Amino acid sequence: MSSHQTVSPGQTFLLALHLLPQEHWHTYWQNPGDSGMPTQIRWQLPEGVTVSDIQWPAPQAFSIPPLMNYGFEGSTVLLSEVTLPADYTGTGLLVKADASWLVCEEICIPGDMAFELPLAVARQPAVSEHHRPLFEQGKAAQPVALQRAASYQLQDGVFSAVIESKDDLLVDAFFVAATDLVEHAREQEISWQDGSLLIRQPQNTYFHQAPEQIEIVLTSGPQSFVVQAQRLDAAGAAQAAADFGLAAFLLALLLAAGGGLILNLMPCVFPVLSLKAISLANNSGDAARQKRDAWSYTLGVLAMFAVLALALIGLRAAGAAVGWGFQLQNPWLVGALAYLFFALGLSLSGLVHFGSRLMQLGSNLGQQQGAKGSFFTGVLAVIVASPCTAPFMGAALGYAVTQSAPVALLVFLALGFGMALPFLLLAYSRRLARLLPKPGVWMDTLKQWLAYPLYLTTVWLLWVLGRQAGVDAQALVLVGLVCLAAALWLWGRQQLGQGFRLAPQLSWVFALLAILLLVLLQPQQGAQQSAENRHWEPWSPARLAELQADQQPVLVNMTADWCITCLVNERVALNTDSSRHALTDYGVTYLKGDWTLRGAEIHAYLQQYQRDGVPLYVLYWPGQEPKILPQILTPNTLRDQLAQLANASSGS
């Protein structure tokens, strides 16, 4: 519905979605808490017409230990602001929207509906008097915006925020709008100190990245307020101190610099560095020029590492919506990383050589004189080093993707400075230049030893993949690694001049086959659970029918990640030792259906039992009618129900 029945060009007006669940049922806030799903509206508006995000009312807390959820009971009005452009020429405005929501009590029922609202457009707007009370209700339910300084930080596993108080802000609870930032069910701490309100709550274990700004709703009896809290370390320098301590941050920079220093021992980097070092040592020019060239080389190295860091930061920002921030939870990316580390390990072992042309190019540019030649030598030294830097770059990537952009940039610059440090030292000390070891067999031995950490990293990635996607996916990637090894072996023989006529084509066939196997990887639902903890099978109509045909007892659990009752029941009643033993004692196969993405097959199954939502628990016992269990389970419910069915079966 609209706040106006007639709107005019250039005007901003309100649209409302009115949710009216039955008594004791609730919908969800923008941060639903430990489970649930926020109401969403997808607008379809004419070009040039803009709409704001939902203006959320102050939420309520719904505690179902051990979980905590946030949402609304009763009549709830969600407002959005729509702005008509000043040059709008139409005589009418058709607003279309697709809304989806989740309503829960003992069960959770998702809902969705498409809406159309035609509005007249005229020079003078006209308010809708009929809907005025509803819009007033929606505005009154929204928290009052406080224009007060507020900041927050994450330190030692605790979320804390400081809000300017002026001794007039009495708060009894708070709600953090950012999801996965705090442990919602843990106790909140509220205190006042030196004219400021201090709020604290344990940090979420699965937290990944702190937003620059978050919204915090404060409640004081029937009143509510909202403040925008800036991350205390938004400037960048304090991010390390807040997230993992200043000492750890300095240690990370030191380790990064040390890693950059070690890169100079790698065979692909050393020729470029030694070429410039010898040129510097034998240069008859003045010391000032030598130092200038050394700093030009350093600037080139730092510039290239800065480019790499900015690329990483850009990928992380662009990929936030598709999970780059959670990259090790993506089985395809984990498999690709396993390919990468395995290929680099084979290169270090001498099976194939990467980057030789780039190394030659770097050497040619390195022969140029002056600051320009030194700068581009630094740039190309980093490019040439990329195959050899993989272990160090992998560590830097894994570290940087969990931190802010400034910290990621500093880590890469420290890595670059460590790489450039020998050239600086050589520029300032001719004695060190004379001590520089000559290239030799020892470098190749070191290179081959450094392959083994890469192989161990590949093993770790395969273990992660198996936990995520199951042993079948893990085996598929292992076959892909064999194909990759074959492709690189053929390529390496070509580099040595020992290949045969069809070797290049066959190499590409194996490489493409490895890629195809990775693309065809199918993650197994629920594979993230270890074998010793998983006591259920994925539900499917075929599997249920098969077990019933074999006269096997079956427990079916229809659940979803957004269903708070489902999660509570699993914690207190289904995933306990008592229930596991009961399933084993009575020979029951436990099937679990995941309706998080609302599949059609599970919806059809729910309809068989006149249900529109989850949870649904059904016990199948041979020779008896299916038994529907209560929506709220106790620790003894499953064993008691199985005992009743078994006794009834034996009595008959």
What features would you describe in this structure?
With 652 residues, the chain is α+β, with helices and mostly antiparallel strands. It has 19 helices and 24 strands. The strands form five sheets. Strands 12, 13, 14, 15, 16, 17, 18 and 19 form an eight-stranded mixed β-sheet that branches. A hairpin with a 6-residue loop joins β23 and β24. α7 (356-366) packs antiparallel against α8. The longest helix has 32 residues, at 287-318. It is globular, with a radius of gyration of 32 Å. It starts with a strand and ends with a helix.
- Assembly category: single chain
> Largest sheet at a glance?
8 strands, mixed
Mean pLDDT: 79
- Residues in β-strands, percent: 15-25%
| Helix content estimate | 40-55%
Total strands: the figure is: 24
Which overall shape is indicated by the principal axes computed on the Cα atoms? globular
Radius of gyration: 32 Å
Measured between the Cα atoms of the first and last residue, the distance is 60 Å
Instruction: Output the number of helix runs.
Output: 19
The stretches of 5 or more residues where confidence is low (pLDDT under 50) are 234-245, 281-285, 319-327, 355-369, 386-399, 525-532
Main structural class: alpha+beta
Pfam families: DsbD_N (PF11412), DsbD_TM (PF02683), Thioredoxin_7 (PF13899)
Transmembrane segments: 246-273, 294-326, 332-354, 375-401, 407-428, 449-465, 471-490, 502-521
Main location: membrane
Domain Thioredoxin: 516-647
